[in-house]
Design goal:
Two copies of one chain form a homodimer.
Chain A: H1 2-12, H2 19-30, E1 35-36, H3 37-46, H4 53-65, E2 69-72, E3 81-84, E4 92-96, E5 102-105, H5 111-121, E6 124-135
Parallel strand pairs in A: 4-6
Antiparallel strand pairs in A: 1-3, 2-3, 4-5
Helix pairs in contact in A: 3-4
Chain A binds a DNA duplex (25 and 25 nucleotides) through α2 and α4.
DNA sequence: TTCCTTGCAAATACTTTGCAGACTG
DNA sequence: CAGTCTGCAAAGTATTTGCAAGGAA
């Protein structure tokens, strides 16, 4: 179960499992799109969970440090989104410019490209972003 | 010459060529890295050009509307960068996590991938970002 | 001389920080 | 009970907006 793995990570870094951390994790666990801090805040409020926006930010940052959550900066959105990493393969996203729906792309064509870039630029490549925007079937 | 093309675009949209627009364009023309608004502001101040940060933002937005400038949101930088589009091929970037240097990658492997994504998701793909981070030769 | 553009101040959006009281282990 | 975590207020950063004065055509 996810919570067990998390308690371990928290304990090892001198942290504690709390009501709010549980709530954020549970929300991310049952949600299938990456959520922004304000969306997490709003959804928890709807679910009658008392939590402050500041605490949401602090929580996602802790979870990111523990390697449990991924932070995404989608194309010209002006805010970050967070999704559970738990056992998921590296992947990318496409977002509809009209309705904002975000769909996972379960592919990444960049392994060969990364090697090519390292050869050409002499950089050591550490990470990459690849995000698409477009129009979803409903909004075309 | 670039300025001629720009005057045309400005005129056609009921706009005017001004001292500040010239200065921003000239700076982008002689700079080989994408610049943020505050960098444009700082460099113009150094060059004895009187300009407000607000005007920088308004100027890059106008140039973006005219299709003369590209706005980039590099990986977790928290600010936008702008570069002249003028006759340049579509390309991507890699940024050094230590010194911040940004290098152009004169390639884009995404034409085939775009088609595949359109088939799989039924989205119409409109645009994409692809940015790398890593460590440049000097900072390794 | 029209009306677009600028600078300044203020507003907005997202995120982080400081601090005292609340809670976990 | 020690030390972490939370909520509230406030600050910080990037960007946008309102408005009166200045400037281009």
């Amino acid at each position: 179960m996810l919570e067990t793995a998390i308690r371990k990570g928290l304990r090892e870094t001198g942290r504690r499992m709390t009501r709010t951390r549980k709530a954020v994790l549970a929300l991310l666990e049952r949600t299938h799109e990456p959520l922004s801090a304000s969306e997490i805040f709003a959804q928890l409020q709807q679910a009658q969970v008392a939590i402050d926006l500041v605490t949401v930010y602090r929580t996602v940052n802790v979870l990111k440090e523990l390697g449990l959550v991924l932070q995404l900066d989608l194309f010209q959105e002006g805010q970050s989104r967070y999704e559970l990493k738990e056992g998921r393969k590296h992947h990318h996203h496409i977002r509809c410019q009209i309705c904002g729906r975000i769909v996972d792309l379960l592919l990444c064509p960049l392994k060969k490209l990364t090697k090519l870039i390292e050869e050409r630029t002499q950089f050591v490549v550490d990470d990459h972003t690849l995000e698409f925007t477009g129009f979803c079937p409903k909004c075309q």
